[in-house]
Design a protein that fits this description.
By secondary structure, the chain is an alpha/beta fold. It contains ten helices and 23 strands. Bound molecules: thymidine-5'-diphosphate and magnesium ion. The site of magnesium ion has 4 residues, from helix 2.
């Protein structure tokens, strides 16, 4: 018998190499290649000939009738909103997030709500004992909900159990990294195990009409397979974000085959579990002192909801010729480098001998490209030591040419800022005032610099 061929699978991105290497050639992560034996080694072992074997498949026009999949709303409005209306039957959802962020808590709450609505719900925990989950449910006031619990890690056991009787409407697997399929070799958590276990569970969900939710941990050290290999296999990918030291959590759809990906769900982690935040616009605004430099308020937009956030910048001049640090929390560091470069090259402001720190207050992560102008205003304010007026907000996208570009939904942003007591806005040229807001429009970043430094 031929010796099984060795292969090395990157635990971060799932790419396969025939020899061990220190660094993965695909995702450039270090020390992520692990030897795995067996599994689906070569995808094209069989030779295919044209016109032989297969059966003819029906081809359907794009305009043919469609039946919309059934949705199960959980009643947790923020969760339903992020998913586009609730869980979809015969579908697979992956929810990723840092350990301890609240994934198990959220899913236990969702499971209990669906069970209370008369659905059959099964929650399989591979991480905690059934007693631990029950205790948590009791603490959350969910002890009365009829959720069927199991502490198990074998997909064969789980599917044998569920194969009998009515399939569950919702099946939660917490987490996929703890699951083990005996169809292939390898320890739980390796890419091939995660992939095989997920495949079996997804097949069950699609055949039996269950909504499957897989919890996936995101770790940096590569010892656990990142959920990235799973993203292609599931219909919906949700990310549960936030800083553990802060109270607020955001549920964001990254991929959704059944709906949009632009709405978020906002929650607060409290002693009684996750509570919904229906109106998040003022949530991330900390109390701001009058006259502090380097701080701007940005009216961000999440789907159709405005969220006002404070952007803080600190600029420290270095005496020596040491390489200055740039540190960013809550925003893209590449984008910060770009704004700094535009301020240098187009506006004559020099940050080259300064350390630059940028922080989005409240543990919020800004993804809206309209933040550019607010970040630039915070940087200019920090460098020039002139505060941005406390009653002003700023928004606009900045191009490499230094041009300030218009952004989507300016009226919505202005209206919400006005509602929260702001009176002025700095934005792209030709932005119309709204809700009583006075708008200063800027064609270029240079014009904003002149305005803020009082140069004409
Ligand atoms: P958990 O749902 O276990 O996180 P994950 O499954 O993503 O790893 O949540 C863990 C954290 O949440 C834990 O550190 C304590 C906190 N927490 C609360 O603050 N209140 C609560 O009611 C619960 C259940 C957890
Ligand atoms: Mg958990």
């Amino acid at each position: 018998m031929a010796k099984p061929q060795k292969r090395y699978v990157c635990q971060s991105c799932g790419s396969v190499a025939s020899r061990w290497q220190g660094q993965c050639v695909d995702c450039s992560e270090w020390n992520t290649l692990i030897e795995e034996v067996g599994g689906n080694v070569t995808p094209f072992q069989a030779k295919h000939n044209l016109q032989s074997g297969g059966r003819a498949i029906a081809l359907i026009g794009l305009d043919a009738d469609v039946t919309l999949p059934e949705r199960m709303a959980t009643g947790i409005a923020e969760l339903d909103r992020a998913m586009g209306g609730g869980f979809v039957e015969a579908s697979a959802t992956l929810i990723g997030g840092d350990p301890g962020i609240g994934k198990s808590t959220l899913l236990l709450q969702a499971a209990a709500e669906l069970a209370r609505r008369g659905q059959r719900v099964v929650y399989v925990s591979g991480e905690e004992a059934a007693d631990q989950v029950r205790l948590r449910a009791r603490r959350l006031g969910l002890g009365d909900a009829h959720v069927e619990l199991a502490a198990a890690t074998s997909t064969r056991d789980i599917l044998t159990t569920l194969g009998q009787g009515q399939p569950p409407a919702l099946l939660v697997i917490d987490s996929i990294q703890t699951m083990h399929s005996d169809l292939i070799e390898g320890a739980p958590g390796t890419v091939s195990q995660v992939r095989a276990s997920a495949q079996e569970l997804i097949r069950f969900a699609k055949e039996r009409g269950s909504a499957l939710v897989l919890v996936g941990h995101v770790t940096k050290d590569g010892s656990i397979a990142g959920p990235r290999v799973l993203e292609h296999m599931v219909d919906t990918v949700l990310s549960f974000e936030g800083e553990r030291s802060h109270q607020y959590r955001i549920l964001r759809a990254i991929k959704n085959r059944f709906g949009g990906t632009d709405e978020i769900g906002v929650f607060a982690m409290e002693t009684g579990g996750l509570s919904e935040v229906a109106n998040p616009s003022a949530l991330f605004l900390t109390h701001r002192e009058e006259g502090v430099t380097g701080s701007t308020v940005f009216p961000a937009l999440e789907g159709t909801r405005p969220v006002l956030v404070e952007i803080q910048a600190l600029v420290v001049r270095l005496a020596s010729g040491a390489t200055p640090r740039r540190a960013v929390v809550g925003w893209d560091s590449g984008r910060l480098a770009m704004i700094l470069a535009v301020l240098e090259a187009r506006c004559g402001l020099s940050f080259s001998t300064c350390e630059v720190y940028l922080n989005i207050a409240g543990g919020y992560r800004v993804q809206d490209p309209a933040a550019d102008l607010a970040v630039a205003a915070a940087l200019i304010s920090a460098l020039s030591e002139r505060p941005v007026p406390a009653d002003a907000v700023a928004f606009g996208e900045i191009a490499l040419s230094g041009e300030v570009r218009p952004v989507a939904h300016a009226p919505l942003r202005l209206k919400e800022a006005a509602k929260l007591g702001f009176e002025r806005a700095m934005g792209p040229a030709a932005t119309k005032g709204e809700g009583g807001m006075k708008v200063s429009g800027f064609k270029t970043l240079g014009a904003l610099v002149d305005h803020m430094l009082g140069r004409g």
